[in-house]
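ok trying this again, last paste got cut off
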Amino acid sequence: MTDKAVGPLTGVKVIEMGSLIAGPYAGALLAQFGADVIKIEPPQIGDPLRKWRKLDGDTSLWWYSQSRNKKSLTLNLKDPDAQAVLRDLVKEADVLVENFRPGTLEKWNLGWDVLSNINQKLVMLRVSGYGQSGPKASKPGFAAIAEAIGGLRYLIGYPDRAPVRTGVSIGDTLASLYGVVGTLMALRHAERAGEGQVVDVSLIESVLAVTESLIPEYGADGTVRERTGSSLPGIAPSNTYMTKDGRYLVLAANGDSIFQRLMRAIGRPDVADDARFKHNDGRAAASSELDNILGGWSVSVDLTEALDILEQASVPASGINSVAEVFEDQQFKALGSIEHHALESGLDLYMPAAVPRLTKTPGRTRWLGPRLGEHNQELLDQLGLTAEMIRKVSGG
């Protein structure tokens, strides 16, 4: 069941092509805020995400979340007639999102030169591993590889072990977010100037863009930042400490006044008054000494006691939540950060609510990820296709 879009992007028509995470997540964000998103999928098999991880029957729970508010249209884009259908859809579209390997759309006669001639105001978001040009442009893009190439993976973990990955495909998600930002900018330009453009987002550049001081430091004097485990180099104290009950305490007390309050709260006014630690540069130079002091205190108290002490002193701190603890977090509950939906199978589906929060036109879930080809008839009827042609182009 679907209902009418209401949101800041109501009236924006999006064609989403591609699969899995980076392109489709960008489409998901647009759909959550009212855009009319038509997801193009190959017949019979659909987006592989439909089968990833935990399933409800034969459908991924992740699919229900990521593809909420989208309409599913199956097209065999290797068929010239299906390509013609896509070009017809583009006539009325504002945005086309794709994350195929560069050159794929051109092979199907659906490249920018063709589509922009059909619709001069079209915005095309192209998400790829390495960008649309350069010696590696034709290589397949995967988040894990982009995180490694962009310098992020090198920083994650401890110096005496192999670098580790985050537990999610952060490279894909970063590219999606930059893609949405670029798309909104391009839509604004199209509104003002009457012309569309390509938004070219690569996974490797999206990762590189969030590496903070990494590039400036190396460029200045050749500094190569190494892995430092749970601490952040040059910022102190900001680390993770074991508590008496075997849990982990995260402290972010690198502000000058916060550091003073922290040390007095744990009974170390002598450290608070030490002139060496008045500012961050002095604390960073003695980070190991401070970690020993804080680690010695943390193992003397349980996590809940530590958090109580630190909260009373207005020191930013937290335990490390598993997903089970995320579900019980009172702040998430107060914000309504996790939505609940009942699936037809009787299974309860929980998923993150739309972010960011808008006070006048908030994002919302109008319906869950659709069945493969669920909207074929509706969408292709609008183009005036015969029943025979619908079966041909949609693989039905």
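PB: full thing came through this time. DSSP finds 18 helices and 13 strands in the chain.
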